[in-house]
Amino acid sequence: TGTMKINEKNHLEVGGIDTIELVNKYGTPSYVYDIEAVKQKARAFKAVFSKRKVKAQVAYASKAFSCLAIYQLMAKEGLSLDVVSGGELYTAIKAEYPSEKIHFHGNNKSDDEMFAGLDYQVGCFVVDNFYELDRLNQFTSERKQRMKILIRVTPGVEAHTHDYISTGQNDSKFGFDLENGQAKQAAILASQMPYIDVIGLHSHIGSQIFELEGFNLAINKMLTYSKKWKEEFGFDLSVLNVGGGFGIQYTVEDEPLSIAEYIDSIITEVENVTDALGLNMPEIWIEPGRSLVGDAGMTLYETGSQKSIPDVRHYLAIDGGMSDNIRPALYHAKYTGVLANRANDQASDLYSIAGKCCESGDMLIWDLPLPKPQKKDILAVFSTGAYGYAMASNYNRIPRPPVIFVENGSDFLAIQRETYNDLMRLEHSLLSNN
Ligand code: LLP
């Protein structure tokens, strides 16, 4: 995808830049983002809505990868922004994100986080639970400040995805239950709160979803309840937020739909069901994270030690691992990659890519076909742009890699590499002479 190709030196190139030049300039490991690819995705989401003449907001779910520069890029692309914490909100403010385009999520917002959202006058709070609703009522009343809210519901839909990351089923820590009446109770309560405007409902059924069925079910449920509530207590649904979760390709086994297919189907379902129920067509809001940045990002590593167990396996270690990509260890996530310094060379055997952390579970890729490794090859691992840097840690005191944006032959250092000093920055010494 994007602008990736193999150049005349047999090197992997992205954004018009030879990855080996990037390695010489910034070292390894490094995350590299193909900015043209990110822009293409952002525009693809927006294009479907405008083609279908449906009012919409496409909000970047910034948990997938948050930093100043990506926020600035998404703002420039005209996207809204989903933030889930004071830290993401703070970064958005520093990025001068238009406040009315910020949607404030989170299942346990602190008082301070809520004050920050109110001070900054975010576009809406996505209210997750009664405790939050109660405090939002109190804070908005004290300040005499209006705030729009979406009510987050669990529509009882199980998306076919890994257990850890499915959030739509009823037994979930997120949101109000639709079926047991809690969502209705929240909607009634909120509608009586003097400074709160309920603008609609929100659901997020999971992540890395390849089927349309889950979205259709969630849309059906939310619209059906909206219709009932309209008759019962005048509930007015002006926004239907169907969350994110659109799948991307990590390996050849993944067969995601195109952005246009996901969004077209969602629009059609909302149109059909509102028609059938005699409701007004709501604005459709979505919250893609992974599908905006996931396959636009890659990680460049240098290869190091090798170990071969005769008749069993070749291990090939790299200079990073679960500290920069926890997903294989946490979700058994699959990745693929190539040797970026000889991208077209024929594979000769299977190599299992080991991270450098002190955990046997720190294996990045099992059985990757590669040419016979030489010293200090550069391994490019693809589709690491979502939940990579965002979930990176300093486990084993490994500094976080830098993040480099490439586009049209230029590179931009969005986040610099952490130093050992950075790792020690917050620490106090027990020795008096230090
Ligand atoms: N909206 C809400 C309310 C969410 O909870 C999420 C993701 C999204 C939108 C964006 O979902 P996406 O489009 O990126 O699938 N760390 C896991 C994924 C966790 C997803 C959490 N919520 C992973 O690495 O696979």
TrEMBL record:
<keyword id="KW-0210">Decarboxylase</keyword>
<dbReference type="GO" id="GO:0030170">
    <property type="term" value="F:pyridoxal phosphate binding"/>
</dbReference>
<dbReference type="InterPro" id="IPR009006">
    <property type="entry name" value="Ala_racemase/Decarboxylase_C"/>
</dbReference>
<dbReference type="InterPro" id="IPR022644">
    <property type="entry name" value="De-COase2_N"/>
</dbReference>
<dbReference type="InterPro" id="IPR029066">
    <property type="entry name" value="PLP-binding_barrel"/>
</dbReference>
<feature type="binding site">
    <location>
        <position position="327"/>
    </location>
    <ligand>
        <name>substrate</name>
    </ligand>
</feature>
<feature type="domain" description="Orn/DAP/Arg decarboxylase 2 N-terminal">
    <location>
        <begin position="37"/>
        <end position="293"/>
    </location>
</feature>
<dbReference type="Pfam" id="PF00278">
    <property type="entry name" value="Orn_DAP_Arg_deC"/>
</dbReference>
<feature type="active site" description="Proton donor">
    <location>
        <position position="358"/>
    </location>
</feature>
<dbReference type="InterPro" id="IPR000183">
    <property type="entry name" value="Orn/DAP/Arg_de-COase"/>
</dbReference>
<feature type="binding site">
    <location>
        <position position="359"/>
    </location>
    <ligand>
        <name>substrate</name>
    </ligand>
</feature>
<feature type="domain" description="Orn/DAP/Arg decarboxylase 2 C-terminal">
    <location>
        <begin position="31"/>
        <end position="385"/>
    </location>
</feature>
<dbReference type="InterPro" id="IPR022657">
    <property type="entry name" value="De-COase2_CS"/>
</dbReference>
<feature type="binding site">
    <location>
        <begin position="287"/>
        <end position="290"/>
    </location>
    <ligand>
        <name>pyridoxal 5'-phosphate</name>
    </ligand>
</feature>
<feature type="modified residue" description="N6-(pyridoxal phosphate)lysine">
    <location>
        <position position="63"/>
    </location>
</feature>
<feature type="binding site">
    <location>
        <position position="290"/>
    </location>
    <ligand>
        <name>substrate</name>
    </ligand>
</feature>
<feature type="binding site">
    <location>
        <position position="331"/>
    </location>
    <ligand>
        <name>substrate</name>
    </ligand>
</feature>
<comment type="subunit">
    <text>Homodimer.</text>
</comment>
<feature type="binding site">
    <location>
        <position position="387"/>
    </location>
    <ligand>
        <name>substrate</name>
    </ligand>
</feature>
<dbReference type="InterPro" id="IPR002986">
    <property type="entry name" value="DAP_deCOOHase_LysA"/>
</dbReference>
<keyword id="KW-0456">Lyase</keyword>
<dbReference type="InterPro" id="IPR022643">
    <property type="entry name" value="De-COase2_C"/>
</dbReference>
<dbReference type="Pfam" id="PF02784">
    <property type="entry name" value="Orn_Arg_deC_N"/>
</dbReference>
<dbReference type="GO" id="GO:0009089">
    <property type="term" value="P:lysine biosynthetic process via diaminopimelate"/>
</dbReference>
<keyword id="KW-0028">Amino-acid biosynthesis</keyword>
<keyword id="KW-0663">Pyridoxal phosphate</keyword>
<dbReference type="GO" id="GO:0008836">
    <property type="term" value="F:diaminopimelate decarboxylase activity"/>
</dbReference>
<feature type="binding site">
    <location>
        <position position="245"/>
    </location>
    <ligand>
        <name>pyridoxal 5'-phosphate</name>
    </ligand>
</feature>
<comment type="function">
    <text>Specifically catalyzes the decarboxylation of meso-diaminopimelate (meso-DAP) to L-lysine.</text>
</comment>
<comment type="similarity">
    <text>Belongs to the Orn/Lys/Arg decarboxylase class-II family. LysA subfamily.</text>
</comment>
<comment type="pathway">
    <text>Amino-acid biosynthesis; L-lysine biosynthesis via DAP pathway; L-lysine from DL-2,6-diaminopimelate: step 1/1.</text>
</comment>
<feature type="binding site">
    <location>
        <position position="387"/>
    </location>
    <ligand>
        <name>pyridoxal 5'-phosphate</name>
    </ligand>
</feature>
<protein>
    <recommendedName>
        <fullName>Diaminopimelate decarboxylase</fullName>
        <ecNumber>4.1.1.20</ecNumber>
    </recommendedName>
</protein>
<keyword id="KW-0457">Lysine biosynthesis</keyword>
